[in-house]
Amino acid sequence: MKLRNRYKFFGSLLLASTLLIATTNASSYNLPSANEKAILDDNVLALQKISKGVSAIAKNAEKAVVFVSVYKTSRGLPPGMIDPFEFFFGPQQGGPRGRGNQREQKREEGLGSGFFIDLNQGFIMTNNHVIQDADEIQLKLANGDTHEGKIIGRDPNTDVAIVQVKEKNFNKTGLSQLVLSNSDDSEVGDFVVAVGAPYGLEASVSFGIISALGRGSLDITAMGNFIQTDAAINPGNSGGPLLDTSGQVLGMNTAIYSKTGGYNGIGFAVPSNLAKRIAEQLINKGKVSRGYIGVGLQPIDGELHKSLGLPKDTNGILISKIVEGGPADKGGLEPGDVIVSINKTAMKKDSDATNVIGLMSPGANADIGVYRNGKLRTQTVKIGEFPNENQLASASEKSGGELAFGLTLQKLNPSLREQYNLDSKNGVVIVGVAKGSEGERVDLQAGDLILQVNGKPVNDADTFQKLAKSSGQRALLRIERRGQYFFVPLRNK
Questions:
Q1: CATH fold label, 291-385
Q2: 338-391: per-residue pLDDT in tens?
Q3: Spatial contact of 406 and 433, defined as CB atoms under 8 Å apart
Q4: Bridge-partner residues for 161, per DSSP?
Q5: 147, 175 in Cβ contact below 8 A?
Q6: CATH number belonging to the domain at 61-165, selected among 2.40.10.10, 1.10.150.20, 3.40.50.720, 3.50.50.60
Q7: CA 156 to chain centre
Q8: CA distance 421 to 178
Q9: Quick one: how far is CA 182 from the chain centroid?
Q10: Which residue of 84, 141, 266, 435 shows the fewest CB atoms closer than 10 Å?
């Protein structure tokens, strides 16, 4: 009996000891400490340095980035515009009459980015499409303060705009400005950092590389070759900086290629050298002087290449039209000349010539290499200033360009599409309306895009004229005006 009790005692003692040990081990267990340094090779250490470098670039840039909120008031159909159903069948009894005359106003909000290029002056660079047609611009700075902004200048042709903080003595604590680097020094594969407010998420940073350089003919803007990057860019990044590894601005984020509207790994930025040049003109003059030589250009396909007798490996652009009295005419260029170079820069497509000439300063000389009758020659042309819309319309009217209803038209192109904030990709743009004409009576305006005449599509002035003349006493035009669509009834005299 005593022996069994002794075993019971030792059994109880052993159980208690086991419980004690288990309890002690559970409470004292700790994961390996982060203070214990891992043994890393040089490659991993280099990667850590890159990570720290990106972090430092982002922290500095965030102080200069501005979040731009814009407010616009969109209006319904302008006076005189009526419902197409009423046009053909008359006002309906008991229903709304002249619904097109009701100009409902709708307040819209948009969000983009920008960055200080001169903190003392309060100058901020952003995209033209961010602030275009804004009734009000609100600038939220990195220190949390919000100020009203005013437009110093904008250029639809390159999508560059300068906005200034209205308050001269605004609080600059915690803010900085960014320096624009030399984008010509960039190479494919270089690391880049994008900063902005995608989908309104402020101070978002993405990291990537330069995927390609010199991307033109993208229908993003009328002029400029873009930097392509795989750093994530989404709606709201527009106007934000694309930074190099020195923390300087290599480009300004402008557009994405996407079938869904979101990030697909293909983004585009305006190169800093172009952005800087445009910004200086906007600040100094409030506008950009665009180079002009007065030619019509035509791409050269295989059959045309043979017909022109060009050497096998020669690329170029065919001059199909010379504006009488224009710079090209005075410089000795002729229809049928093939432009192969401008100031020793090779020309392969018409957008190459548009970029080089358009970005030259009026008054500068351009040495244009052309093939004429199978021989290479150089013509020196003094660059003129691109005519404004009124000058273009006036020139068109003098040459008999006024069409039916007193309208002067121009085929839609990327520049006009951007300038007038149009959604459609086809049509003819009204660039002039004669006084006392039918077009003026119904309030048609410069910038209106004609899409259809009596339900038939219109893509050039000749088609418009034929359809207008064959329409009988009345013609119904379908119009787009800055994203708003409506029908306009016109009477043939």
A1: Pdz3 Domain (2.30.42)
A2: 999 999 888 887 778 888 888 888 899 999 999 988 889 999 999 998 775 444
A3: yes
A4: 126, 154
A5: no
A6: 2.40.10.10
A7: 8
A8: 29
A9: 21
A10: 435
| Per-state percent for the chain, helix, strand, coil, to nearest 5 | 25, 35, 40
CA atoms within 13 A on the CB side of 56: 11
Q: Which of 370, 169, 129 is nearest to 253 (CA)?
A: 129
CA distance 474 to 312: 54
Comparing CA positions, the residue from 274, 470, 451, 237 lying closest to residue 358 is 274
Same fold, 61-165 and 291-385: no
For residue 389, with 0-12 CB atoms within 10 Å meaning exposed, 13-18 middle and 19 or more buried, which class applies? middle
Banded pLDDT at 20 (limits 50, 70, 90):
very low
Domain range list for the chain:
61-165, 183-285, 291-385, 389-491
In Å, what is the CA distance from 185 to each residue of 16, 190, 213, 276, 338?
A: 76, 10, 11, 15, 31
Phi, psi of 246 (to 5 degrees): -95, 0
Strand, helix or coil at 115? strand
How many CB atoms lie under 10 A from the CB of residue 453?
A: 23
Asked if the model's pLDDT at residue 140 lies above 50, the reply is yes
- The residues carrying an active-site annotation are 129, 159, 238
Exposure pattern of 159-177 as b/e (b: 16+ CB <10 Å)? bbbbbbbeeeebebeebeb
Which of 333, 329, 353, 328 is closest to 343 using CA atoms?
A: 353
| 191-196 and 136-140 strand pairing | unpaired
> 384: buried, middle or exposed (CB in 10 Å: 19+, 13-18, 0-12)?
buried
Q: Against a cut of 0.85, is the pTM above it? A: no
Tokens read off for 324: 């009488």
CATH 2.40.10.10 applies to domain 183-285: yes
**Residue partners of 476: CB distance under 8 A and separation at least 6:** 84, 87, 88, 453, 454, 455, 487, 488, 489, 490
- What pLDDT score was predicted for residue 323? 82
How far is it, in rounded angstroms, from Cα 124 to Cα 113? Answer: 10
Rounded CA separation 70/113 (Å): 11
Average pLDDT over residues 281-288: 88
Per-residue model confidence as pLDDT tens digits over 211-242: 998 887 666 776 778 899 998 888 888 899 99
Q: What would the DSSP string read from start to end of 260-287?
A: SSS--S-EEEEEHHHHHHHHHHHHHHSS
